[in-house]
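Changelog-adjacent note: as of this version, every example in the card shows the full chain rather than a window. The one below runs 381 residues end to end.
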Amino acid sequence: MDYFNYLLTSTNNFEKIILALFGLSLLIQLIYYFFVYSRILFYKQKETSESNEPVSVIICARNEVENLKKHLPLILAQDYFDYEVIVVNDCSSDKSEETLAVLQKKYSRLKISTINEDKKFYHGKKLALTIGIKAAKNELLLLIDADCYPVDKNWINSMQKNFTDKTEIVLGYGGYVNKKGFVNKLIRFDTFFIALQYFGLAIAGKPYMGVGRNLAYRKSTFFKNKGFAGHNHILSGDDDLFINDVANKNNIKIEIDKTSYTRSLPKTNLHEWFTQKRRHLTTAKYYKTKSKFYLCIEILSREIFYLSFIFLLISKFDYRVLLISFLVRSLVQLIIIKKGMNRLQEKGFLFSTLLLDILLPIFNFHLIVSSYFLIKQNKWK
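Full-length structure tokens:
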């Protein structure tokens, strides 16, 4: 049965509405895949800096002694001519202080700032990061989490080279280590898909977020925009809300060369990941209206596509039209996902794409709704 002929001739108004929603959601999905998610496949940096500038790497750490032992030496052994590493030891109760003292004797470029615990005053990561930024002696700041490590000794150089006179922000990719298990696939696919979104929209001139696992910006930009003052009452958002406030199409670049990536170990069970994810999603409601629109329309169109497909299949609508539509979207999706995985050095979840693509919006919707009713904000550590 012809799609448009059915829309014009059917007397069942409800089915016509569902069919129209199916067609519209398919169109929106194809627009996102062709004009947002595919952008990194063809992205080439147009302009890079010809001169190197000194860099301050900033790490906020709370009870991260094991990660500091493993990852700090990799960061301190970067092949870059002039940089410092500032670790803000934020109220740690483990052996972080002793470990940092030992490392500081070995590496002269390691600087340490310490925040002592005050039980009368609880603070989030933003205070620690602000202290680290104030302590930085260089204009270019490169942020990485304590549980992350650079995959290449040229990480700093790869991120720094993007800073020209007009560039204030550089978005990097922070992926997760590939391990066995469904939860690992789910987390890595979610991280990868979000990267396709924020990279794609940034290339399209509509930047909305970055991740603190791999993010660079100018110290002057931070203070010119009054740091985190606009959302200091929110524990999360040191990365995405700041970028959402400050970034525009003229002052931002992305870096997706394989030497620029960072990695970390993901959570190992759904409960831990849900807690982490909920903390991240609490910031989404504070995004600019246009950013929320871009994200919501994609999630809604995805869910409407699947739900209307199931309904029309049950209602005995011409299955040939449905299957062709479904296969077209799936083929476009798999091609772009596969090429995107190659570009970002990811593997292991391509054949789980359909299931993960259905589950993630459901999980995200549940977490977003539940986050609105949380009285107590989640701690950053």
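Structural remarks: The chain has a mean pLDDT of 92.
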